Amino acid sequence: MVIRRSSAREVSALLKDLETGPATARDAAVARLAVIGTRAVEGLLALVRQGDTPAARAGALAALEAIADPRCADTALAGLDDADDSVRAGASALSRRLLDTPRGADILDRLTAVVVDAARSDRSRLAALEALRTCPVRRST
């Protein structure tokens, strides 16, 4: 089996599927973009920031979660305040994957703030709690 490099055209088509396609096309796009990895990060970040539908933004966050690129930190933090619960849950999941990055302390603080904020929805608070519950443990030596 020959493995070929993903072209910018392929990434663009997958981002379009993620933004405007039916659920099955979005799911397939998330999986493929996750496999493409860092070459898809900039487009995914733009989709999270500018996407019209919560499903597209949440899908982009799911792909970014699989990639776990440190460039995603600001977008993950902003997503914690999105108007949509599914986007906030996706941002929490992405944030968990970024706790080992240089922005890990900022992310930890924000996830903790979400968990204790009684004004937030239960789903958002539980997603942040799950991110904290499954965070990597560092042991001092």
Structure description:
The protein has 141 residues and is mainly alpha-helical. It has eight helices and no strands. Helix 2 packs parallel to helix 4 and helix 4 runs parallel beside helix 6. 37% of the residues are buried.
What's a concise summary of this model?
The chain is mostly helical. It has helices at residues 8-20, 23-36, 41-50, 54-67, 73-79, 85-97, 104-116, 122-133. Helix 2 (23-36) packs parallel to helix 4 (54-67).
Q: Low-confidence parts, pLDDT < 50 over ≥5 residues? A: none
Approximately what portion of the residues adopt beta-strand conformation? under 5%
CATH fold-level assignment: Leucine-rich Repeat Variant
Strand segment tally: 0
CATH architecture: Alpha Horseshoe
At the first level of CATH, the class is Mainly Alpha
Spatial extent as radius of gyration: 15 Å
Q: Would you tell me the structural class of the helices and strands?
A: mainly alpha
CATH homologous superfamily designation: Leucine-rich Repeat Variant
The helix-strand sequence is HHHHHHHH
Taking the sheet with the most strands, its summary is: none
* Helix coverage percent: 55-70%
Shape: globular
Average pLDDT works out at 92
Alpha plus pi helix count: 8
The rounded distance between the terminal residues' Cα atoms is: 44 Å
Secondary structure topology:
Layout: H1 8-20, H2 23-36, H3 41-50, H4 54-67, H5 73-79, H6 85-97, H7 104-116, H8 122-133
Helix pairs in contact: 1-2, 1-4, 2-4, 3-4, 4-6, 5-6, 6-8, 7-8
